[in-house]
Amino acid sequence: MPRVEFWQGNVSLAYGALAAGCRFFGGYPITPSSEIAETMAEKLPTLNGRFIQMEDEIAGIAATIGGSVAGYKAMTATSGPGFSLKQENMGLAYMAEIPIVIVDVMRGGPSTGLPTSIAQQDVMQARWGSHGDHGTIAYAPSSVQECYEIAIKAFNMAERFRQPVLIMSDEVLGHMREKVVVPEEGSLPIVNRKRPTCDPGEFIPYKPDQADNLPPMASFGDGYRWHITGLTHNEWGFPTNCAEEIAKKCARLMDKVSAYRDDIVEYETESVDDAKIIVVAYGSVARTALSAVRQARKNGLKVGYFRPITLWPFPDREIETLAEKAGTVLVPELNFGQMVLEVERAIHGKAGVVQMSLVNGELFQPSEILKKIEEVAR
Amino acid sequence: MPRPEVLDWLRNKFFPHMWCPGCGHGIIMHAILRALVASGKTKEETVIASGIGCSSRMPGYIDACTMHTTHGRSLGFATGIKLARPELTIVDVMGDGDCTAIGGNHFIHACRRNIGITAVVMNNNIYGMTGGQASPTTPLGAKATTAPFGVIDPPFDVCKLAQGAGATYVARATIAQPLLCEQYIKNGIANKGFSVVEIISSCHTQFGRRNNRRTPLDNLNYLKGASVPLVKAEGMAPEELEGKIVTGEFVKREGTEYTDLYLELIARVGGDRV
Question: CB of B210 within 8 Å of any CB in chain A?
């Protein structure tokens, strides 16, 4: 029998990570994410795992990457300024292809901003943060139940593709309490990183397997000796200035997401088949949006709902198809317009895009979105 | 010529190295390798971590589990690895910029935790790789590309910093004392907790040419002349010690190592039975 719990979003996310096999957490306290670290501090030692509170956000992600290099499934969690501080070492994890999960419980910015209020202002930072190009995988849960499930998915993706995977939660979701039906152990798929099977003497650490173009990863301490560097490197992990080797490495960092795009992209829809207006929303805002869409339907308006579950890669083709059919897309966001740009890019002018923007530390009211739907419908 | 068992630790595929001819860092790498061999370590169970800079290219040349990370942050990564696998031997090689400037916070906290890592601080008093800018250990009055009229910022004393922050083994030698370097690194590795071995290195290319020590030999001769063993220094007046480099073992004490404490904690809460 599945267990039923009444959890806070942050706590649910931490339990999901543990269910995924996370046994290492390095972090630093920051509102509104600290409950994740606190839950890990309490649970990890009882599971023979490792928790460490580091001296700052930068060291928090550094230790997390170290834990992963030593063979553990590893996570760190942060918010706002902490997410900014982690960008440099995120880059190292992308370049060195070290799987980790990073949670950003979004709060208002810029700077210290609104530590205890919701925002969705880190969406583009998730995609383009850290200097240099890389493929991005970022999830946006919208319920406490989903915090649990997405934590598992995020680890599965990180382990499969050997790269950081982001969970873009938000302050309302992180601190909200809801019912969670905890899936039975073994009922959700768990992915573990691919390990080398060759003799240690034959190991070429960044040589991708032909079948999937992904290199297996050895842990420090498992008998394999290899070199990790943030410098652009060849298949041996050695720094290179050779144009051919550079091009190959950099392309592969993009390809692991683009080539497997259809395996990664997730979204949810409701009432889209005959819709003339599609409301596109994610995270906590999706809850408000869905409520407004349902009310509009009751009022006889042909309105649909589309929720990207992966913000990156973005479900662009799926939105394009629906938008073209509907004619109008409404995008409510708690920022001055981030994901709306991606929606515009996705639909190539085949539908009208209406932006709704709120930056005051609060959520939209369902009535506000409903009013906008009615305006657009006229 | 290095002994075959020491040469065996080199990653030949990585050569040639990028250090200037006459750089002090090669002497330190040789000392580290001799210390590891003398300590009976295996390449598979040894991690060499580093940050960014000339010194930090060293792990690439060593055929162990090696990790070249971000500027100043190597101790964060090394801490994660050590906590995950306390059985591994971890040597963190860092430059003076890495250790005392951008990574200063990580350095004092690693000292405070007394985690079982040996930090070898390769102090050449300058940012060499980026072109001779002043570091927090560049002596007062010395010239650097970012201090063309001489440094006015007081320098850090790496060993005093480590001692104050709680490291359980702290020693200093210079590259003019290669056997002493090996001995101190070996003692550092043998210490269960956090060890700091500061080795005064030289950079004739970026420091020497602006400060009247243009050749590698000028630098070695300077280091020989400026070094004072701790026993002798203890009997000297502060003004006599000005401009001198005191070498020796400053701290050698017992202290509970961090991962030992963590494993104890796991046992206390029953995690060892999972």
Answer: no
Kindly report the nearest CA distance between residue A366 and chain B, in angstroms: 45
A252 belongs to a structural domain: no
Amino acid at A164: P
The whole-number pLDDT of residue B13 equals: 87
Q: Which domain holds residue A86?
A: 4-181
Considering the domain architecture, whether residues A169 and A304 belong to the same structural domain is answered as: no
Please give, rounded to a whole number of angstroms, the shortest distance from the CA of B270 to a CA of chain A: 6
Q: Do B63 and A200 count as a contact with CB atoms less than 8 A apart?
A: no
The total number of structural domains that make up chain A: 2
Gyration radius of chain B over CA positions: 18
Does B166 contact chain A (CB < 8 Å)?
Answer: no
Query: What would the pLDDT profile of A115-139 be if each residue is shown by its tens digit?
Result: 999 999 999 999 999 999 999 999 9
C-beta of residue A63 within 8 angstroms of C-beta of residue B77: yes
Query: Over chain A, what is the mean pLDDT?
Result: 98
Residue showing tokens 């050569």: B15
CA distance A334 to A170: 10
Chain B residue numbers touching A58 (CB-CB < 8 A): 73, 76
Helix residue spans in chain B (DSSP H): 4-7, 25-38, 74-84, 96-97, 104-113, 158-165, 178-190, 216-226, 230-233, 258-268
Spatial separation of the C-alpha atoms in residues B180 and B244, rounded to whole Å: 18
Is residue A226 domain-resident?
no
B269 chain-A contacts, CB cut-off 8 A? 45-46
Q: What is the mean pLDDT of residues A200-224?
A: 97
Least CB–CB distance from A220: residue in B47, B69, B75: B47
B201, B203, B198, B71: which is closest to B132 by C-alpha?
B203
Give the pLDDT confidence of B32-87 residue by residue, as tens digits.
Answer: 999 999 999 999 999 999 999 999 999 999 999 999 999 999 999 999 999 999 99
Whole-number Å distance between alpha carbons of A32 and A24: 20
Paired tokens of A346? 């996705």
Confidence of residue A34 (pLDDT cuts 50, 70, 90): very high
A284 shares a domain with A171: no
| pLDDT at res. A175 | 98
Extract the residue ranges of chain B whose pLDDT is less than 50: none
* A342-352 pLDDT per residue, tens: 999 999 999 99
Q: How many angstroms separate the CA atoms of A107 and A172, rounded?
A: 9
The mean per-residue pLDDT over the stretch A350-375 comes to: 98
Tell me whether strands A22-27 and A73-78 are parallel, antiparallel or unpaired: parallel
Among the partner residues B69, B75, B266, nearest to A92 by beta-carbon distance: B69
Do A58 and A172 have their domain in common? Answer: yes
A46 contacts in chain B (CB < 8 Å): 266, 269-271, 274
- Determine the average pLDDT of the residues in A240-256: 97
Question: Is A358 among the domain residues?
Answer: yes
Distances (CA, A) of B267 to A18, A47, B264: 19, 10, 5
| Cα→Cα distances B240→A204, B1, B182, Å | 55, 38, 28
* Contact B265/A at CB under 8 A: yes
Q: Are B107 and B120 in contact (CB under 8 A)?
A: no
First to last CA, chain B: 50
For residue A334, the domain's CATH number is 3.40.50.920
Instruction: Tell me the domains of chain B and their CATH numbers.
Output: 4-266 (3.40.50.970)
Touching check for B242 and chain A: CB below 8 Å? no
